[in-house]
Design brief:
- The structure is a homodimer of 252-residue chains.
- With 252 residues, chain A is of the alpha+beta class.
- In chain A, 40% of the residues lie in helices and 21% in strands.
- Chain A has a five-stranded antiparallel β-sheet.
- In chain A, helix 4 crosses helix 5 and helix 7 packs across helix 8.
- Chain A starts with 21 loop residues before the first strand and ends with a helix.
- The N terminus of chain A is likely disordered.
- At the A-B interface, helix 4 and helix 5 of A face helix 4 and helix 5 of B.
- Chain A binds a DNA duplex (30 and 30 nucleotides) through helix 8.
DNA sequence: ACCAAAACATGATAAATGTCATAGTTTCAA
DNA sequence: TTGAAACTATGACATTTATCATGTTTTGGT
């Protein structure tokens, strides 16, 4: 159920280092997909549109860094964003890939003086909508239905991470990788003559960071999956050829 | 910051197999500690007291099982409860130990037809307060401040699990175990002549399930910690003798 | 079209952890 | 108090995964 197939035109890599902000005039399509927005009462919906600001980032930039104070509530409009945490030893772990329609900082943004628990890195050119903590907080206070939608969203996120923690705790490296691929098919898979293609560009290193193994291990396992005709291709053109085979391995 | 030192009298193990329910008459002390409750308006506070039901469970019972439909919103009043997920191969993983004052199912309970993503097992005699999904939902709708408190609670839980996932993904077994012990000190540690004692009863198997290793590995690592004077004792009397040593190991 | 950087690949070896077997010790309820 | 069950302990060995080293292929910007 892909909300938006991250269809970016040839945006080229302009030096838009400092995010180019401009107020969103009319409801962008993406908002119409978001319950949180749809549950707002008429006047508050208009208020939210006034408060939302659009910003664009390119690969290599950061939307925010781990430890920085939270300033905004965010909605991902276009592209993919990875949530990364790093450990003392410099190793990194990617906890989640956000797709268009995903909310972020919906929790941290309600705390005074909260800091970002992780870094948000664009995986290509992305566009986000955001509003100040204050405006977000006011909106929730005036719209219990919206607050309940946020609770639902957070609840889903919580269940996702718990499932992920379970997999990290109990499964072997190849099973974790299989689980990841199965998961990504649902989030960013599109039909392809040879199977299902993932629209997110994922290197073996990206995958390694998502399942807690070294890059070499991810490469070796992917090579095996390739031999076993479960997948084919690399980063920019990754095809899932045997989804049920992967599912079976994931839960073996 | 221990909310309540799980002080249970000699409750003995009466055959209270089917939870003995009875309406909570006056605000139990534990509720006064919970922001969610304190943010309710007067009349809604009374309504919540009317809706809340107390139930007791003993070790070996289940409060609910993975996959069962959700019926209630819960507050832990007394004792400790572990949240467990199990995998296809029969292996189990303990995601979280709930302590008095913790909420559970605050997220699932807002969905129609949701199922429990894990099993809730008492770690001894416990007492919980609960209310029907419907009453909980109504309460949130009428009290935006309460809903915001739930958002904060879920946000904290989300950050916790993400931190845990990071540790599972990046750290060695001994570091994961050290992190666990450090964490538990904050949740259930009390002063002791020899250091800090954990009030929760934790076997090596419990610990193993919490950090994703086998029981043997947990035993060996704890034996090493013992030799290194970091900890002493077992399950029912576990003492942390060198907290900063454990912290150092956890983030090495 | 070309060059540099990134990504992919593979082998040899070491380290970490799991598995299986066996036995001593503690806990708890009858 | 005693006996069974649960817990702790330890060794030998197998398996999984990390580490290090080296080389090839692909990608992307000029």
């Amino acid at each position: 159920m892909t909300i938006l197939a991250s269809g970016r035109g040839p945006l080229s890599k302009q030096p838009n280092k400092s995010p180019s902000n401009h107020a969103a005039a009319n409801p962008p399509d993406i908002l119409k997909q978001i319950p949180l927005f749809n549950f707002l009462r008429g006047q508050d919906r208009l208020a939210m549109l006034r408060e939302l600001t659009e910003a664009r980032y390119g690969k290599g930039e950061c939307i925010f860094r781990e430890g920085e104070p939270t300033e905004y509530f965010h909605i991902l409009k276009e592209g993919a964003v990875k949530c990364v945490k790093s450990s003392a030893g410099g190793k990194e772990c990617t906890l989640k890939v956000l797709m268009p329609g995903d909310l972020f900082c919906c929790e941290a943004a309600v705390f005074d003086g909260a800091c970002h628990p992780g870094t948000a890195q664009p995986m290509g050119d992305v566009s986000i909508l955001r509003m100040s903590k204050k405006a977000y907080f006011e909106m929730l206070k005036r719209n219990p239905d919206a607050a309940i939608e946020v609770i639902k969203y957070l609840g889903n996120r919580l269940n996702e991470v718990q499932e992920k923690a379970k997999i990290l705790a109990l499964d072997r490296a190849d099973q974790r990788l299989a689980s990841l691929l199965v998961d990504l098919v649902e989030r960013s898979g599109v039909k392809d003559p040879q199977g299902i293609r993932l629209t997110v560009r994922l290197t073996r290193q990206d995958m390694a960071n998502m399942v807690g193994v070294t890059t070499e291990t991810a490469i070796r396992i992917m090579a095996r999956f390739n031999r076993e005709r479960l997948v084919s291709g690399t980063a920019s053109r990754l095809i899932i050829k045997n989804l049920s085979g992967l599912k079976q391995l994931a839960s073996a």
